Amino acid sequence: MTVNQPIYIGLLGAGTVGSGVIKILTNNAGNIEKKVGAPVHIKKILVRSPEKLRDAVFEESLIVTNIDDILNDDDISIVVEVMGGEQPAKDYMMRALKAGKHVVTANKDVVARYGRDLFALAEQNQVDFLFEGSVGGGIPIIRPLKQCMAANQISEVMGIVNGTTNYMLTKMTRDRVDFAEVLAEAQAKGYAEADPTADVGGWDAARKIAILASIAFGTRVSVDDVYVEGITNISLKDIEYASELGYVIKLLAIAKDDGNGINVRVHPAFIASTHPLAAVNDVFNAVFIKGDAVGEAMFYGRGAGQMPTASAVTADIIDVARDIHHHISSRILCTCYDQKPLRSVDQTESPFFIRLLVEDKPGVLAAIAGAFGAQQVSLNSVIQKRKVDSCAELVLITYKVSTANLRLAITSLSGMSVVREVQSVIRVEEE
Ligand code: NAP
Ligand code: HSE
User: Fold this and answer.
1) Which ligand is nearest to the CA of 193?
2) pLDDT for residue 332
3) Going by CA atoms, what residue is nearest to atom 4 of ligand 2?
4) Domain residue limits, the chain
5) Atom 1 in ligand 1: which residue has the minimum CA distance?
6) pTM of the prediction?
């Protein structure tokens, strides 16, 4: 290869992120060429609807609608997948790897479920498979975990990794706007995916924490191994109680290795308003990592959106292009060398916030305390009692209890005639 021979990309998708990648490769072409040692050009762009107006400027002649036009083009050495969804994205990436092309993607759906297969193909074909944009948008997190923190025994990864829900919870907390209104706003601003179920249901965060846990613990964790609770049941009332009690509610993605196994979960949680994650607001993401050598490290930044995500994707492109240009390989492929056991959420322990609607008459509190006690759930405090119609609203915080015991206590409460409704059960994440 001569010094200035261009490196060609086949871009799959020219939507939000794809358009961002086009903008960066165009606007920063000079700098990128200097960093790589050769110009980096997009040769073809695959889309579904060629007639659509795009958010980036490029020659119309680059557009193709058949993947084979990219896979059969020997000039193209890097395939950048920013289409989204499992299929046909997974199939296209597998075919690209088999064709000996390096693959860069921001697709957490595919990486979180089929990472193992894609890594195996990349290994067999001696090509790169990079996915920095799949977690945390523009925040560097995959490379730091795989490379900069490689010397550590990681015990915990905990973060806010979904921008949409963080934006929603922030708005609900600050402006007391209800769930439906704030979701519509998040969609209008382009934070939420077209179908927001994955965001508000916790599945987007589950995919991201599965990817982070796999790297942190050297053990393959699939999205199907993650316990998931979304924010759809979080009401303004819970938010108000949290504030009164000195907490905020955040959707947390947590992966812990306690030495006996790892547990990976996504759920809303009360965290103390003094906790550093409590200050992570709006669409921002943050990830805390605890390592035995480094101690605590935190990564913070824009976790979604066109340019932050395109920044991470383009950085991967630059890394691959540099390797191609210099005929070297700095490939770091699958880092899952271990098979640690996975622990179910029932084996985890934490305090819980519980909001109940109960009959307002003597003896009810004692009966409720008895139901908790029967399952070894100790109550730390019964902190509020408000009148709601003819009933009383009880707000309880337990001591640290096993999730399994808490579930049994809630089942028994739900069957009691004096309990009208178990309105909320939310974990309290201790520092
Ligand atoms: P998007 O705006 O919906 O764009 C998707 C693009 O892919 C469109 O150009 C679409 O073509 C094309 N496409 C989809 N299916 C196709 C098919 N079967 N054949 C050919 N082209 C197809 O999506 P996005 O928001 O850019 O997201 C892309 C990826 O980045 C996803 O994996 C997403 O999870 C990830 N990501 C997004 C963000 C974010 O903030 N948006 C952040 C982090 C990661 P048409 O334009 O013709 O419809
Ligand atoms: N919908 C995702 C979020 C986009 O809100 O974080 C980034 O993956």
Assistant:
1) 2
2) 79
3) 304
4) 7-137+306-326, 142-302, 345-429
5) 15
6) 0.95
CATH (one of 3.30.360.10, 3.40.50.2300, 3.30.70.260, 3.20.20.140) for 142-302: 3.30.360.10
| Residue 398, pLDDT score | 97
Q: Name the residue at shortest CA distance from atom 17 of ligand 1.
A: 48
Centre of ligand 1 from the C-alpha of residue 148, in Å:
30
**358, 391 in Cβ contact below 8 A?**
yes
Mean pLDDT by 10 residues, the chain (431 residues): 80 96 98 97 97 91 98 98 97 98 97 94 95 95 95 97 95 93 84 82 97 96 96 94 95 95 97 94 95 96 92 97 90 85 94 95 92 96 79 94 97 95 95 73
Residue 208 a catalytic site member: yes
Domain 345-429 sits in CATH at 3.30.70.260
Exactly one of 44, 101, 108, 208 is catalytic; name it: 208
pLDDT given at position 3: 54
Q: What is the CATH number of domain 7-137+306-326?
A: 3.40.50.720
- Indicate if ligand 1 lies below 6 Å from the C-beta of 361: no
